[in-house]
């Protein structure tokens, strides 16, 4: 669990605060919190249907995902919106960050920290990231329309 806390929670928040928060103070509170909710829902779904398990393998399966749900995923979603605002190429950025996140997860699968089950595979993993990233982009567009974000 120490690995999960250090790599999936502390490190992303250090990077997010030292870099992203200094550049745009609204992204993390608005986008990160929204994506945190999405991450919890997606992971609960995956655990319930036994599509994946995350080490350490506790009886309470969702505890191992907590650092990811509160750290890595919200910061990556915040960076997605940051890069979209910078490049003005939303779907390229969504595709790129989805590939990047899938690659990160595949390193965890290869190291045995994530175990797939019930027919889950890398392709499904990619879709489990790209769909929520599209949702967060639509949420960002909604916030722009309401003039909450620029």
Structure description:
The protein has 150 residues and is mainly alpha-helical. Helix content is 74%, strand content 4%. It has helices spanning 2-23, 27-48, 66-87, 90-110, 122-145; strands at 52-54, 114-116. Strands 1-2 form a two-stranded antiparallel sheet. It is globular, with a radius of gyration of 15 Å. The protein starts with a helix and ends in a 5-residue tail after the last helix.
Please summarize what this structure is.
The chain is mostly helical and 150 residues long.
Tell me the layout of helices and strands.
Elements: H1 2-23, H2 27-48, E1 52-54, H3 66-87, H4 90-110, E2 114-116, H5 122-145
Antiparallel strand pairs: 1-2
Helix pairs in contact: 1-3, 2-3, 2-5, 3-4, 4-5
Task: Identify the notable features of this structure and list them briefly.
150 residues, mainly alpha, 2 strands
The computed structural class is: mainly alpha
The number of E-state strands comes to 2
Largest sheet: 2 strands, antiparallel
Q: What strand line-up does the widest sheet have?
A: 1-2
Mean pLDDT score, rounded?
97
Pick out the low-confidence regions. none
CA radius of gyration: 15 Å
**Shape descriptor:** globular
- The percent of residues in helical segments reads over 70%
What is the ordering of alpha helices and beta strands?
Answer: HHEHHEH
Strand fraction: under 5%
Terminal residue distance: 38 Å
User: What count of helical segments does DSSP give?
Assistant: 5
